[in-house]
Amino acid sequence: MSTVPNGRTTTRSTAVNRLYGRLDVIDQVIGRVSALLPRGSLGLVFIWFGALKISNSTPVAELVANTVPFLPAKWFVPALGVFEMVLGAGLLIGRGIPVVITLMVLHLGGTFLVLVTQPRVAFNHGNPLQLTMTGEFVVKNLVLITAGLLLMASRQRQQREERAEERVEQLVAEPAAVGLAAEVGLAAEAGLAEDVTQAAEATA
């Protein structure tokens, strides 16, 4: 029965450790950008689509107008574009994410009105399982809604972790602050006693 020399075993173990170390670094990098990528991509898409609506270059203007026929398309489509651009900017800036994501989900949820108000446009032969291109365009918003909710959950988890770390730092700092205050108090008492002694000696 043959055995592997110790030197070869050590070399192989070192190579495996290096591989695991590199994989760990890659995992950390992915973890850091995992929230930035969906936020950035969603923000870019909303700004892009919104700009198309404002410039009256969007191919879905008629679809949007027919979904809410009780609203004037002349101003509703550009107004929707402005709203989408605001959402996109909020996502890119990264401030007030819970509010931005909530508005985004409500907006995307509104696109499903197409399935109700225009079933002939969304389904082939009235069959809900046979989506047209327009139907697929609408249903894919489920993915965007899910991405937004995951992004909001990730941000809230990050904030909880940051608050927990701050609390730990405060708990660690409090005993040190108490100890420092005690040392200062003792030093002050010692200095006061020394001053009294010197004054007494001077009087004598």
Describe the structure.
- There is one protein chain.
- Helix 2 (about 35-55) runs antiparallel to helix 4.
- This protein is about 80% helix and about 5% strand.
- Strands 1-2 form a two-stranded antiparallel sheet.
- The longest helix is centred in the C-terminal third of the chain and has 63 residues, at about 140-204.
- The N and C termini lie far apart (about 95 Å).
- A hairpin with a 2-residue loop joins strand 1 and strand 2 (about 125-130).
- It is mainly alpha-helical and about 200 residues long.
- The chain has one domain (about 15-175).
- The model has no long low-confidence stretch (mean pLDDT about 80).
Structural key phrases:
elongated; mainly alpha; two-stranded antiparallel ribbon; 3% strand; 204 residues; 82% helix
CA gyration radius, whole angstroms: 32 Å
How much strand? under 5%
Largest sheet: 2 strands, antiparallel
How many alpha or pi helices?
Answer: 9
Helical fraction: over 70%
What kind of assembly state do the chains in view correspond to?
Answer: single chain
Measured distance between first and last alpha carbons: 97 Å
What's the β-strand tally? 2
Low-confidence sequence ranges:
none
Q: What is the total number of structural domains?
A: 1
Shape: elongated
Strand order, largest beta sheet: 1-2
H/E element sequence: HHHHHHHEEHH
User: What is the residue-averaged pLDDT?
Assistant: 82
Structural class: mainly alpha
Outline of the structure:
With 204 residues, the chain is mostly helical.
